[in-house]
Amino acid sequence: RLLSTMKVSAAIAEAMGALGTDAVENYLKDKKVMDEFHSKLNLALSTAQEKTKNLPVVIFVDELDRCRPLYAIELLERIKHLFNVESAVFVVAMDKKQLGISLGAVYGQGFNSTEYLRRFFDLELRLTQISNDKFCESLIKRMELEEFFTSRAVQVRQHDVEDLKTSFRDLSRLFDLTPRGQERCMGLLALAMLATQNSQHFYPVQTVIMAALRIGAEEIYYKLSRENGSVVEIIDHLKKMKLERGGIDEDNWSRLEGYILSMRDSHDQLAIQALDFHKELWQTARNNNEFEYNSNLIIEIANDRHNRFNTLKTVIKRIDIAAQFQN
Questions:
Q1: Would you say 301 and 263 are in contact if contact means Cβ atoms under 8 Å apart?
Q2: What's the gap between Cα 69 and its chain centre?
Q3: Residues 210-232, buried b or exposed e (16+ Cβ, 10 A)?
Q4: Closest CA to 301 of 264, 248, 269
Q5: In sequence order, which residues have a C-beta less than 8 Å from that of residue 273 and are 6 or more positions away?
């Protein structure tokens, strides 16, 4: 029995010795590969620096938080261990809080994602969020929408362009659209415009309303696209958002409501009733200039002959076509 035990012990020792030898050999092999990689990397960076007056090469990694958590961590690990050279600087843009939440979902509750992520970075800089109004304005300028409007054979009316800017800002606020959501919204508008023949009228405000609805309230958008719903459903939803978030003055709200009602078709009884209500309010509110003006503005936009060729189904069809070309 003692002899048998000694044989087992010897076998284990031999196996452990072999394992240790393999581990050392693998380490040396990996170290050699790593050294060769760093040597070639430094050579490549040195060549690049000859053109940049010895400035470091800056490599940007954007939207890391949108990657799968494990992939994001593997990428950070590789950057830390493979690219840890003086001539290279990595700038990683991410929503650290969101990535931390994703990591917590993978590694379980109690995982300190903040400390874990901190070990990868030498310096952290938090960017201030651009105001909603400024970002909306920059998107319209960047996409050169105004120039495109004026280049069409059937030009978009100037006050429609101004109403587009105001409506887009208000809709972004109502739907609490992220900058990425705002970009998608403007992208749908631009694509829908490209899908409209140059000789046809284009309705930017109605289009941006439905684009924002598709991004900010998908369930309502798809319900309206599948069924013969009423445009009043859009107004009711936006009213709820308005009560929750505020930030829209009554004149702008009236314009928005007028443009939504302008998309009604002849069978939309709820929209017809809503317009009748505003007509009655306009006639009876003579002593209240604000109510009179707002109701009159809604009626004026909703019944504008220019807008009446543009029904809800027409706008949805354009948006759906545009969405096929958007990632």
A1: no
A2: 19
A3: bbbbbbbbeebbeebbeeeebbb
A4: 264
A5: none
Could you give the angle at the alpha carbon of 53 between the alpha carbons of 47 and 59, nearest 5°?
65
The C-alpha atoms of residue 136 and residue 142 are separated, in whole angstroms, by 10
Structure tokens at 312: 């809800």
225 closest CA partner among 6, 284, 217? 217
Note the helical H segments in the chain: 2-49, 69-82, 96-107, 113-118, 132-142, 145-151, 158-174, 179-194, 204-216, 218-226, 232-245, 250-261, 269-284, 289-302, 312-323
Determine if residue 202 is left, alpha or beta; phi over 0 gives left, psi from -120 to 50 gives alpha, anything else beta.
beta
**Nearest in space to 192 (alpha carbons), one of 315, 15, 38, 51:** 315
Residue 26's pLDDT band, with cuts at 50, 70 and 90, is low
Nearest to 263 by CA among 240, 282, 235: 235
CA distances to 8, 22, 25, 272 from 12, rounded to whole Å, are: 6, 15, 20, 88
Q: Give me the sign of the Cα torsion angle 127, 132, 133, 135.
A: positive
- Mean local confidence (pLDDT), 199-223: 91
pLDDT digits (tens, 9 = 90+) for 142-191: 888 777 777 776 767 778 888 888 999 999 989 988 888 999 999 999 88
DSSP helix/strand/coil, 315: helix
Domain ranges of the chain: 2-118, 132-323
Nearest by Cα to 324 from 196, 210, 192: 192
| Residue written as token pair 């170290």 | 31
